[in-house]
């Protein structure tokens, strides 16, 4: 199909209604856009049409036989009928077949009250099961996060498509065999939490969350719309609440998705807190005398604004290391593009024909970005180039080229990449001169990225269009991060790449746009979810308790520069940051009163909390909060010379967090809890003389880590993976480059405490 046809207007008539649309859309899509109902059983908007149920049949004038509206693209002038006696009869027969041997156990089925089969059985007046087959023994399978009851499965394939096209775990498969057909999980040992997304789309009670099973009825739960705050994707979801507890999380699964952390990482409320007046008064005094406020980016935009106001009033330094690194990176970036925000978005990643990932372990750092890269791979057969010092077997199925570079050489690698990708593009003379001056041989030798690898990369993107570049925290924390940012920004400015700079976890993007952050801690310190002389903590381990984000109203800013609302799923009885601000003379009734005064110069709009929408419309358009304005900035096209790299010989550790873990908050959530091992290859074990199970102690940025070493035979090289999510209030104090040389003390036979605190 010629891509330009997409904008050609067409007019069709559905059930007598004239519907205007554009070429390329299916009849079902146009019907839905126009509020016309066509029943479906296997249709899921966010994947390609499955076309397995036939419920969506319609008659098209001049066409013999009913056609599948979910699959058939509408042609200009088509006249379509969606409801008549013969269509009804055929749909009714389909429902009868669906009900063959489907146990009539709605009373005890988890899906009851929200089951598509139940609803459509009633809608089509199927009151009996006229057909039967010999029933088969189909035991329920427990797959860990989800369980599967084959007896309830209607083989719609939605779960399989989600596992393949969206999350990319590729765990589920359809095993054909007539009435013995079943869904199989061929990666049971992995216990992928991403299968929660597959369960969420199951129209019946066949694939369900194991933790929710038999805990509550759907109609007893109140849905509270919110956004996930673990990583910067800010995915749309709802807490489903009974009493003062969250029973589960659901999402608008037709149009958007959640990763395992969003779906299962909700149980981190700071419960049972009451107002501790003494601690509150001490907190107020601590703020008045503090030289610095150190904070983790798991705060709302409004709280970030309160901290900024405290800074302005008391001349306090604001320290949030990861957000600061991101702020400096994006500011440098904007000096090349002339806009305050990188323009990247998730949909453009999914539509890309080529994606380059640089400086981020993306599957762990941001699952939603990885899902969209997976979509590009599955839908467009996109080339996916993964550039990193450590290979990641979890994304091997979508990566078409892995380019391994030396630790520390990110600036040189960036220069090589930019030079390669801009080779045949007309660019300003000064930029061309800078690139021509690069000592390619030397950069290639230092980074260990061969010129032929870059040629392969360029060749693989040749004759393609629609490219994305995804970059992350390895680059922000690099000593030359600003030069890296300026070079990469050329790919947006000169080669029109969709560039996504994955923000640090939590609300790192909002914080970086609202707060004037500082580099160095000065004087006595107050910490907000960070260890300091006086500590406010939603983890319940500080001097004054604070509400966690599951107990707050406010907004956060997503990596797509969208300001979205969060709501409280659990109540909170203690003091909040706004109470402290009031005592400091920064007066406001509620924290959310600050929503309409978020800084215009940061791109925020003067919109109040209660006016912000939170829904997807029938076309799948997102109406959540608002998109930030990208502000015009001055352009200085200048680059530093590429620095010599400091060789990272010997054993190195890489600070990261494994999938589903982001912070001390996800670490509190039992369904996704995991042991924080230091993971290294057999080669790492030889270099360090560490055996599997050895306990070692080492320091990074003055923070002491105690880790049990585990050999991961799927890994190669001499870099080990060091998680930080279990470090409690110390995690936000890690400020350096993500890689560090490992100097350790073996602790075997010594008593080992935990890292928290
Ligand atoms: S488990 Fe659910 S989603 Fe998967 S095929 Fe069966 S009915 Fe469809
Ligand atoms: S952790 Fe990130 S990707 Fe996962 S649901 Fe939450 S916001 Fe979305
Ligand atoms: S919705 Fe079209 S075949 Fe199922």
Question: Brief description of this entry?
Answer:
With about 750 residues, the chain is α/β, with parallel strands linked by helices.
Sheet with most strands: 5 strands, mixed
Helix fraction, binned, reads 25-40%
Radius of gyration: 27 Å
How many strand elements?
35
List low-pLDDT spans.
Answer: 751-757
Instruction: Quote the beta fraction.
Output: 15-25%
Q: Work out the oligomeric state of the chains in this entry.
A: single chain
Compute the separation of the termini in Å: 58 Å
Mean pLDDT: 94
The strand order across the widest sheet is 2-1-5-3-4
Q: Supply the number of helical segments.
A: 21
Descriptive terms for the model:
five-stranded parallel beta sheet; 21 helices; globular; alpha/beta; binds FE2/S2 (inorganic) cluster; disordered C terminus; binds iron/sulfur cluster; 757 residues
What does this structure look like?
This protein is α/β, with parallel strands linked by helices. It is 26% helix and 19% strand. The strands form 10 sheets. The chain has a 5-stranded mixed β-sheet with strand order 2-1-5-3-4, with no helix packed on it. A 5-stranded parallel β-sheet has the order 15-14-21-22-23, covered by helices on one side. The chain is globular and about 80 Å long. The chain binds iron/sulfur cluster (SF4) (2 copies) and FE2/S2 (inorganic) cluster. One iron/sulfur cluster (SF4) binds at residues 153-159, 183, 201-204, 206-207.
